[in-house]
Predict the structure.
Amino acid sequence: MTYAADRLHEEVAYVAYHFHWALDEILDLEHPLRRRYVKEIADINTRMAEGR
């Protein structure tokens, strides 16, 4: 299965913005792990926005 290039770029940009990781470090992550980081960042952002 191929992963949409646009979605990959979104994930990479999201993780890079929040964690300040290099492109190579993010691309070296297996897809499920990268998605996990995206979810965790989103959860943190949601909690912060809700004041928790």
